[in-house]
Amino acid sequence: MSRVWNSAYSVQLAYAQNMSPLMPDHGFPIRVIIPGYIGGRMIKWLTKINIIKNESTNHYHFHDNRVMPPQVTSYEKSIEGKWWYKPEYIFNELNINSAIASPDHGQEVRRN
Questions:
Q1: Domain extent at residue 34
Q2: Is the same domain home to 28 and 7?
Q3: Could you tell me which residue, 109 or 98, shows the higher pLDDT?
Q4: Which residues contact 51 (CB under 8 A, 6 or more apart)?
């Protein structure tokens, strides 16, 4: 929730992409866009919003988008050590790993 209420993150509810309604594989009818977060953490197929006091206990909240330390070499070890529930291994934010070098800002591109 700290991201939602922070205007620097500009969390959005999207119902369209490129001036067309979202397709089901992109999250129709509504998708949450959280700039800087991995796409898997952005909620798709949104039909209602419930605000709750505690973190979700949903299976996918814990078992998706985690980076396990090198000593966790099997699924069995991850379960034994309860690694899925340690917040320091969650994979939410992404570092920028690309940049647009061309065209320049405001530059027109010719279509062939």
A1: 1-48
A2: yes
A3: 109
A4: 1
Write the single-letter amino acid at 43. I
At position 95, the amino acid (one-letter code) is N
* Structural tokens at position 6: 């922070």
Quick: pLDDT tens for 50-81. 888 887 888 877 877 788 899 999 989 989 99
Question: How many domains is the chain partitioned into structurally?
Answer: 2
Let me know whether 65 and 30 are in one domain. Answer: no
Distance CA 34, CA 5 (A): 12
Q: How far apart are CA 79 and CA 85, in angstroms?
A: 9
Phi, psi (degrees; rounded to nearest 5) at 42: -90, 125
CB within 8 A of 99, min separation 6: which ones?
none
CA proximity to 37, closest of 60, 55, 12: 12
Residues 73 and 44 in one domain: no
